[in-house]
## 1
Amino acid sequence: MFCKNCGEAINDNQAICLKCGVKVGDGNAYCANCGQAVAPEATVCLNCGVAVTNQAQQKDLDGKLGNYDKIVMIIVCLFLGGLGIHNFMLGETKKGVFKIIMSLLCGIGGILALIDLIKICMGNYVIDPEKLV
Ligand SMILES: [Zn+2]
Ligand SMILES: [Zn+2]
């Protein structure tokens, strides 16, 4: 990945950029995915198409998912994930319905929920009401 402040290439395990000293993930001048300069207000990198999250959004993702604490979502996903309850809570009706159907038909709703659970734990979960899984 790349420093969002100066665009220098950095390792995933680095905590701060060795070139500018800014904490990894801070800054909004460069794309963390490809290192191209992006406009501070941009939401998507025009070079690689990856979503550019600003500092405020990043912090929000750390402790929260949608309007809920991440911990709450992890617990809900763990126990009720197979029925897509966490999806309904996040406004992802399509995903929720899809999981219920998958659970009833072939019992793989739980596996899909497990994938969601891992994403939530890793902070990689993206709320998208338009997608099925
Ligand atoms: Zn830097
Ligand atoms: Zn990019």
## 2
Amino acid sequence: MRATALIVGLSLLTACGPKPPGEAAAPPPPEATPAEKQALLAALPAPYNTGDLKNGEMRFALCRSCHTIAPGGANMTGPNLYGVFGRKAGTHPDFNYSQVVKAAGFTWDAEHLDKWLADPRGFMPGTKMSFAGLRDEKDRVDLIAYLKVETGYAP
Ligand code: HEC
């Protein structure tokens, strides 16, 4: 049984040709080069233009268990965050938001995100995002800069 499965698996692999690891089935998103990311960062409004993308990426580790950020990424415990800037709160298709986020009525920008990330439940009591909050202001600046650069933000 095992040998058969292995052979079938191998022939399937051969049939599909070599695939770079980690590539999604969807059309590959145009991944910005590090230089392009630095240019995007520099074009952000202050204070985000001085954000530390490395630290932002490290802070995003706090979000990764619940959120994807790649274009077309899956909704997990939380919605996919690609395109979140400029998107009305609570409107990612196929995600079942809490009433309070659905009814929020605002569009995500750095200012709203800063309040949300500092204290999600204080900002929107009744949210089902169970995240305690990121209290350090500089960490939030870095994380928001990282999110802007990684989620297709267009100034
Ligand atoms: C334990 C899971 C979890 C963690 C950790 C988490 N989130 Fe969430 N997030 C959610 C859920 C669930 C929602 C939907 C909230 C609701 O409907 O009340 C959400 C909603 C959001 C939204 C609103 C999206 C929209 O479409 O309106 C943003 C923005 C967001 N999260 C960013 C983050 C960031 C950035 C982090 C890391 C600092 C983070 N979240 C950490 C679960 C999580």
## 3
Amino acid sequence: MVKIENVSVTYSSINARVKALEDINLTLEDGRIYTIVGPSGSGKTTLIYAIAGLLKPSEGSVLIDGEKVVGPSRNMAVILQDFGLFPWKTVEQNIALGLVIRKENPGKIKAIVEDILDKLSLKPFAHHYPGQLSGGQKQRVAIGRALALSPSLLLMDEPFSSLDAFTRENMQHELLDLWHQNPMTVLLVTHSIEEAVFLGQEIIILSSSPGKIKDIIPNKGWGFREGEWYYKTAGIIRTKLMEYIK
Ligand SMILES: Nc1ncnc2c1ncn2[C@@H]1O[C@H](COP(=O)(O)OP(=O)(O)OP(=O)(O)O)[C@@H](O)[C@H]1O
Ligand SMILES: [Mg+2]
């Protein structure tokens, strides 16, 4: 279980101080999928960084299974907004990276990487470098690298934003398939209301300046892209977002 307790984050630089998050309290139950929506600048990426241990909150703390987060941990995988790929490593090597760091057996690494290349349709690019890929292909490599770790906590910052509509829907289904096989805790940031409602068992809405949690909407109709519940929930979120952007 992830517990975020009274977390505030203020960025300070020579000429400015920006309060990116204010008094965030949130519990992520094990094996559930949470989506976060909120205007640009509402602190979504900052929240992901704080949970991942990539940034120390100015106030409050993040606890995973009761232990305070002080840095990235083994059971967690993060997909960052800018992909975070190593340009000097091939697609295959980028996907294998976390497993190599964990010193997994080479045969096992090879099998996992093969499976992921296949699932994410990246086989033809296995020996390419990130500089030779499109934005959407890079994004899929970043997703592959995270999934290779079979994490119990998966933090994703707009992971499907560079994908075409068709690939995006495929990836959303792929994520749900993987989750059904191994129900990890997922926190996924998105700007797409449709994606938030399709994937999120709970939908967290942030408002900006400073970022605060405005609502957490339970979504019993997750996993469906149509129907009365879907349209009703999407409508509620749209209205709330418009209110918070004003
Ligand atoms: N390193 C930094 N130094 C100073 N200010 C920062 C830094 N990173 C983010 N900010 C500020 O903190 C606020 C929250 O930023 P953050 O990137 O978390 O927003 P976001 O919700 O992820 O936005 P987007 O939807 O555009 O990705 C913004 O006002 C941003 O300008
Ligand atoms: Mg962001």
